[in-house]
Amino acid sequence: MTSVNKDRSLVVIELVGGNDALNTVIPYNNGLYYNFRPTIGIPQEEVLALDQELGLNPNLAPFKTLWNQGRLAIINGIGYDNPNRSHFRSRDVWYTAEPEKISAEGWLGSVIRDLDPAGENVLTGVNFGRGLPRALVCKGVPVASVGNLETYGLMPDLQDEMTRRIALDAFSRMYGPTPGKDAVAQVLGQAGTDALKGADILRTAPQLYSSDVEYADNPIAQTLKNVAQVMCAGLGTRVYYARHASFDTHSNELLAHAKLWQDVSTAISDFTADLTEHGLEKDAVILVFSEFGRRIQDNGAGCDHGSGGVAFVIGEPVNGGFYGEFPSLREEDQLDGDLHFNNDFRSTYSTILNKWLGLDPDPIVNGQFEQFDFISS
Amino acid sequence: MGNSDVELIAHLMRRAGFGATRDQLDFYAAQGYEATAEELLNPVDERRMGDDLIRRFHPELSGMMGPNASGENWLFRMATTTTPLQEKMSLFWHGIFATGYPKVIHGKALSDQIRMFRRHGMGSFRTLLVELSKDPAMIIWLDNQDNHKGAINENYGRELLELFSMGVGNYTEQDIKECARSFTGWTIANREYMELRSQRDSDWPYGRIAWHFEYHPEDHDDGEKEFLGQRGCFNGEDVIDIICQQQATARFISRHMYSFFVANEPPVPEWPDTPPLDEQAIQQLSQAYLDSGYDITAMLRVLFNADFFKSRSSWYTKVKSPVELVAGVLRLTGEFDRPRREILDRQLQAVYMGQFLNNPPSVEGWHEGTDWLDTGSLVERVNFATQQMGDANKPGVQAMISNVAANAVGPISPERLVGECLDQMGAMSVSEDSRRVLIDFASMGGDVALGAGNSDEQSRRQIGAVLQMVASTQEFQRS
User: Fold this and answer.
1) Region A217-244 average pLDDT
2) Do A195 and B200 touch (CB under 8 A)?
3) Residue of chain B whose Cα is closest to the Cα of A134
4) Residue A75: inside a domain, yes or no?
5) Nearest partner of B308 among B281, B286, B330, B329, judged by Cα
6) In this structure, is residue A350 part of a structural domain?
7) B interface mutation test: which of A151, A152, A187, A246 has the most B CBs within 10 A?
């Protein structure tokens, strides 16, 4: 383990619904690809070539620029043993880093605990969205869950600033520490106090921020703008979580997948530009993952749930390039009609945990996994 | 009828149901505590609405196959039922026999399991276990379709003993194997096909198909077994008979019941090493279980009439689960006088707070008590409660404001206003600390002058603001 800078942070972006890996990173010189994808195949001449074999879907054009800058690591053939093709179960596997049994502790929850063992900063982990994905759940670890940064906090429906201040003042008195209270009151009081504290700090972030980058008007772009705002405010946040949906392209894939990736890749590229503008590009690494890839054979309009997928690790500190192996499309190499995974997703987790965040990865990912070189320790 | 009786009935309704409005409490108070408990214990819902009718008003277009429909339907019932204990007991059993969507991937099968709890959850525990063992969602959840003669799968056999009836330390690994053998042949029809459908999660293009239980005698191991010291060619029902006779089962179910209705026990894995909070209460409930021939309602009757339940010291000691909180708010706001599609959002609110009905974190169910609370979930809980109670367009909120206004003649002091609002929120009692803060809050607007009548918008706003603040108290988070 290396001792690392306390400014280093991790931004995790979940592509909810199962991103079609094979239409994301495309083997554009492989005839089998076009045989299996008669309706949703991306024409060879449109693919943005990365090398002689593989190229990006044209809707990921901003990723091509990141690739050229050496900031894009592509992890092909990512997955886990005995893949589960249920959205919920497979998500839980990725969330808990535990494919064998059902576990309730999230890997990022453990990360936040290890980064801030004394729980000194209630904003060490910030989730953007409603409700906490299990990835961030860990007993006793506070994680702020932000639906909308501008209005984040308690009782946001109180429009009048004065009324809200009076109400929050009353709330802070009711949830403040009082000796002799029972165990439930102590937990309620702690959570209430942490919530107020987190909200007070977080709400300052948008006011402190200015940027020349103009984010698009779609949810993932606005979320990444919020992430940049919190990062620029220097609140000590180390783990950021965002989700974008829905990649569950059973039908209408060509149109839907195009829009999804235009939004996501543009948002990420704007975000990295924003970090550079603020001199923060050396401090952040982005992980993009999805719960599974999709079938090799298309279904005439889209494709169904599969297993082996693709993940991306992005940022100035990243050694760009291909990692893992691109799975073979030959029938005998497929896994029940899916891309056969060849690297456990916990190798990618371990690399980030160890080489980027300086943590002992094994207890977090429930095992010892070979690490990649997409980050130099 | 003294106010302390109303408060006691309010406690009963919070625990045995999802809370009650002041008007409902008046109705119950008129008949008294024992009669109210008896009414809860003998549910007859003459106004019961069919599932199809409920679904007509909040179509979710998945044929109830998706992960949300069952919970939405159920939450509507919790928010509107006239037999709240029946829904509460279904929630109780759902917490113990925790079955989840990620593996079952069949919303209708999960919904059918909840209906089964509604039907059998207050009857004989023996019948309940038999029905549970035949429940298609449970069979898939714990792999009993893979439990074959000569090739047992122990998953259901183990959890039946460990999590569903006796708890660890009361049987051997050999008993688990014998138990599993007894349940060989208990499967669902067209197993291979249905299982494949489930595992592939392929709802395209045909949708999913209803599951039903099927017993395969040719796949049942009818050889002799030795289970918990008894010998015989046991089938599943024989094993359940033996389980039900055990003192350990009586205590295990009693402790669950105590934890759910009286005060939170630690998580189940700690039970073997931790004595119950109230040993005498567990003995009383166990006795009721054995004396009545495993009758759940007989146990509940003892519980609701016991001092350990009624005592003021047990009020507000529990943390409401997200579903209890949401259903409780909806009962107060009266928003769902009929099914509405807004129930889709209300169910999501409970998900944001950490409780996704039909999707528990594991077969161990949810960890209750203070484990419901973290920074993120508390923000969701407080925001939901205050937002809903702060919406004066909701019929229930309107009624509360009118009641406060009608109960007053002329100006009312902040002290009185707070008292009236607490009363309207379901005869709530709060700590002196909370009361003082609420009074200070109410004082900001001075006395509420109601001389101008109920139409006085300013007074109504003042009353509404205090009701909303009551919804933000610690006590409102508790049951």
Assistant:
1) 95
2) no
3) B361
4) yes
5) B281
6) yes
7) A187
Q: If you ran DSSP here, which 8-state letter would residue A355 be given?
A: I
Domain limits for position A240: 9-152+212-365
Could you tell me which residues come within 8 angstroms of residue B368 by beta carbon, excluding any fewer than 6 positions away?
B95, B259, B260, B264, B318, B319, B321
Q: Which are the contacts of B159, defined by CB distance < 8 A and separation ≥ 6? A: B142, B363
Quick check: bond before A246 cis, omega within 30? yes
The pLDDT score that the predictor gives to residue A1 is: 45
Cβ B105–A153 below 8 Å, yes or no? no
**The pair of three-digit structure tokens given for residue A74, joined into one six-digit string:** 């592509």
- Name the domain count of chain A: 1
- Interface touch A86/B105, C-beta < 8 Å: yes
Is the pLDDT confidence value at B143 over 60? yes
Q: Which residues contact B214 (CB under 8 A, 6 or more apart)?
A: B187, B188, B189
As given in the structure block, the two tokens for residue B74 are: 């159920």
Considering only CB atoms, which chain B residues are within 8 Å of A250? 204
Of A84, A142, A184, the CB nearest to B374: A142
* Three state DSSP letters for B362-426: CCCCCCCHHHHCCHHHHHHHHHHHHHHHCCCCCHHHHHHHHHHHHHCCCCECHHHHHHHHHHHCC
Residue numbers of B between 384 and 443 with CB closer than 8 Å to A: 386-387, 390, 433-434, 437-438, 440-441
B57 in contact with chain A, both atoms CB, cutoff 8 A: no
Q: How far is B434 from chain A (nearest CA, A)?
A: 6
Per the domain annotation, does A182 fall within a domain?
Answer: no
Which pTM was predicted? 0.87
Distances (CA, A) of B132 to B86, B126, B160, B163, B365: 17, 10, 10, 13, 16
Over residues B286-341, the pLDDT tens digits come to: 999 999 999 999 999 999 999 999 999 999 999 999 999 999 999 999 999 888 88
Of the candidate ranges A260-274, B182-196, B203-217, the one whose mean pLDDT is the lowest:
B203-217
Chain A residue with CA closest to B384: the answer is: A155
Among A134, A127, A256, A264, residue whose Cα is nearest residue A198: A127
Is A193 part of a structural domain of the chain? no
What pLDDT sits at residue B406? 87
The more confident residue out of A85 and A281 is A281
What percent of chain B shows pLDDT beyond 70? 94
Nearest-CB residue to A154 (from B201, B383, B474): B383
pLDDT band at B387 (very low <50, low <70, confident <90, very high): very high
Q: Which residues between 120 and 159 in chain A have a beta carbon less than 8 angstroms from any beta carbon of chain B?
A: 122, 127, 130-132, 134, 139, 141-145, 153-158
Please report, for the domain that includes residue A355, its CATH number.
Answer: 3.40.720
d(C-alpha B378, C-alpha A334), whole Å: 46
Whether residue B452 is predicted with pLDDT greater than 60 in this model: the reply is no
Helix residue ranges, H only, A139-182 = 161-174
Q: What is the mean pLDDT of residues A227-232?
A: 96
